[in-house]
Amino acid sequence: MAGSITLTMIKPLAVQKGFTGPILAKIAEGGFKIIAMKYTRLSVNQARKFYEVHKDRPFYDSLVNSMTSGPIVAAILEKENAVQAWRDYIGATNPANAAPGTIRALYGTSLEANAVHGSDSDENAIIEGDFFFSKMERF
Ligand code: CMP
Question: What is d(CA 122, CA 7) in angstroms, rounded to the nearest whole number?
Answer without folding.
Answer: 10
